[in-house]
Every structure is written in C-alpha cells, then in structure tokens.
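We modelled the chain as a single entity of 215 amino acids. Its sequence is:
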Amino acid sequence: MKELIIPRILCLLIGYLSGNFMTAEFVTRKLTGKPCRCLGTTGNPGMANVMANLGFKPGILVLAGDLGKTLLAAIVCALLFGKSMGQLAVLYAGVGVTLGHDRPLLMPDCKGGKGVATSCLAIFLYMPLAGAAANIFGMLVVFATKYLCLGGIAIPLFFILPAFLFGGREAGMLQCVLAAVCFAKHYPAIRTIPSGKCEKTDVLGAIRSKLGKKR
C-alpha cells in the first residue's frame, strides 16, 4: 500500500511547492514595486490581469513562468516516479501545481491565481491529443462567449471523459478533482454572468488587432 500512496503524495507535494512560485507576483513587483493584489480591479495574480494592466509582454512572461513551473514539476515527477506510476505521475504533479498556484502558502491569505495555464498544460502533458482537444474546446468557448471564466472551467470538464476512457478510473477521479478545483476558483465570476456583471474579454478581437498592427 505504501508503494502506491507515497509516490502519489510526493508528486502532489512536488507540484504544490512548484506552484507556489507566483510568476505574476514577481513580474508585477519588478515593474511596479507593488504586489499583484494592487493591480487592476481583481488583483488576481495571473496572466490575464497582468496583461490587461501592464501590457502584452509582461503577460506573456507570466504565462511562460506558469507553464514553466508546471513543466518542471511534471518532468521531476516523471523522472522520479514514472517507472512505478507511468503518466499518472505527470497528472498528479499537474494537480499539485494547480493547487499550489491557487492556494500558495507564501501569498497573503493563501490567495493565488485561478490555475488556468497550469491545468491546461497538465492535461496536455498527461494526454497530448485529448489535452489539446480540451484546450481548443475551451478556447472556442471563450471566443464564442467572451467569458474567460467559462473557458477556464470548460477545459477541465471536457477532459474528464477522455481521462476515464483512456487513463482509467484513477486518472478520471483525479481529473474530477482538478475540475472541481478550477470550478471553485471560477464560480464567483460565473455566478455574475446572468446579471451582466461578469467582465467580458474579446480575446479574438485582441488577437486580430495585434496582427493588424504588425501588418
């Protein structure tokens, strides 16, 4: 039993510790001298908030850092426990990173980001084809609705079925946990959609505008 439980706990722990590095906090303090909680109206330590208030390049730096810490944890766990756990080591690491990103011990009140980038990369690394399909689905949801919160929850929810079908019961249950974590972070925004108070983001329009300026 220990041979099964301990590697899984260690993967979660490694992921959690990696997730505690808040790239948005580092970038924001470097550029403004203030914590990320003072940035914008949400104070969310994530790519969207940084990009909206500090610009495209700082936002990309935050995205790169969040993806990097997820990749690092996945590689470490795969090297240490891949032989005994297989690809599950990667998924456990990804869940750990997302938990660490959402609830970092080093942040005031353990208030972190929403874990979109970390969860997206985690499922892609675990199962590339199905993970890519889930990410594309979430992107299309955002394009169609202009609500980032709906895309953020659509991705992990979409991946639950492939996780069960191709990864087995444990992978499916673990993905349910990841989806629940993501839903909890996005629910405050989702609940304001019917009242019209939820902020809309025209991601597709922003991309077109960026491409138009380059031309």
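As a brief sanity check on the tokenised model: The two ends are 60 Å apart (CA to CA). The longest helix spans residues 56-85.
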